[in-house]
Design a protein that fits this description.
alpha+beta, 5-stranded mixed beta sheet
């Protein structure tokens, strides 16, 4: 079992501030694309406990959603929320994810951690 220190290490590749090669002059979409990474549920549990995990429907591009949130495109985000394409992860999601061992594509758009389930729980 991973300790908290080991789990936090898994998140570092998706945080640009922790990457020495991060290019903060690149266009936003390119920066967000470079900050995506794969994580397991065990790496996301503490973020879920803080209420900052946001599920993104597989029909949407994770980077596009991250960009929308970064530039505060509230009209587009509202439409996704109303259609259930973007939602805060629920207790039911957490129970399902805990019972399985899903893999997620993740993107941090502070304070949120956007996730798309890539392998079923």
């Amino acid at each position: 079992m991973a300790t908290n220190d080991e789990s936090s290490e898994n998140l570092k590749p998706i945080l640009s501030s922790d990457r020495p090669d991060a290019d903060n002059t690149a266009p936003l979409s390119e920066r967000l694309e470079s900050e995506t990474g794969y994580l397991g549920w065990s790496d996301l549990v503490r973020f879920f406990a803080r209420g900052v995990v946001v599920k993104v429907d597989p029909s949407l591009d994770l980077v596009a959603v991250g960009k929308c949130m970064s530039i505060d495109d509230s009209d587009r985000l509202k439409a996704w929320l109303e259609n259930g394409l973007v939602a805060r992860a629920s207790d039911d999601d957490a129970r399902r994810w805990s019972a399985g061992s899903p893999t997620f594509l993740a993107l941090v758009t502070a304070p949120w951690v956007l996730v798309q389930e890539k392998s079923p729980a």
